[in-house]
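Field reference: sequence -> structure
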Amino acid sequence: MATAKSPSSTQSQLPDTSDVSAHVQARILAEALPNMLRYDEETVVIKFGGHAMGDDELAKAFAQDVVYLKQSGVNPIVVHGGGPQIAAMLKKLEIKSDFVQGLRVTDKPTVEVVEMVLAGAINKEIVSAINSQGGKAVGICGKDANLMIARRVTELPDPESNQMKAVDIGYVGDPLEVNPHIVDVISKSDLIPVIAPIGISREGDTLNINADTFASALAARMRAKRLLLLTDVEGVLDKSGELIGALDIETARELIRDGTITGGMIPKIEGCIEVVEAGVEAVVIINGKVPHSVLLELLTDHGAGTLVSARTLKKA
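Structure field:
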C-alpha cells in the first residue's frame, strides 16, 4: 500500500464516524480493505460528465472520492466532458451548433470555443475542486506532450443501414495514437491528472474528441485496471427494469441481439466491449448522480453500476 499520509493532511477529508458504532466501522473496513488492496498502485481511468458536473454537491463528492483513492494507493486519472457548458457558451456567443449522430458539428470558430471551455474553464474548475479536498490535481489536455493524436472523423455508420457513410462534421476527432508518457509522469507522483478531451491531428489541427471515446482510448493504452464511465443512468437494465450488476462480453452481445439493450446504451456497451478486448480488465457504467458512486463501485462488494468484463467478475 502507499505510505500513509499524516493525520493533518487527511483528517478533514474523511467522513465523520463519531455516531457510528465500532462494530459498524469494523464491518465497513472489513469490506473496503480487501478492495483497496486489489487496486493498490493500479490505474483507474474515470470519465466525469453528465449532470454531476453541474451539481456543486455531486462535484464535491466526486472530488473527495478521487482524493481518497489517491491517498489509498490508487492512481486515478480523470477525463472530463462538458457538453452543456460548451452549448451555453456557444449560445452566448451566438454561434450556431448542430449535431450529427450525437457528435457536435465543429467548425473553426466552434473548435476554438470548445478548447477554451474544456481545456480552460471546466478543466480548472475540476482541478480546483480536487485541490480543495486535499488533493494535488494538474490539468492538461490531449495536445500536451502529444498525448492524443487523432484523425478527423470523415465517416459514420448510418443509423438505419449501419453502413459507413461519408460525413463532414468539421474538427471532430477519433483517437489514432495515444502517448501516455505525460500521464505516467504525473500519476506516478503524488499528483492527479485531470484531462480535457482535446486532441491534435498530425497536421496540427485541434480536434474535439468525445469524452467517452477519449477515456476509452487512454484506458486501453495504459492497460488500466478499471475504466469508470460516469453517466446520468444507473447502468444496463433488464426487461423488468432492474439493474444488471455485471455482464461478460458474450452476455452483453446477447442482450443487444435480444433487444434488452437498446437506443443510446448500445454504442456505450459496444465501446465497453472494445475497451475490454483491448486489455482493460473491466469497464463500469455508473450513475454519476449518486453521491460517492466511485467509492461505492470500487470499495464495496455490491458496486454501483453495470460492470462489463471478458468473464464474469465480482463487482468490486
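Note: The mean pLDDT is 86.
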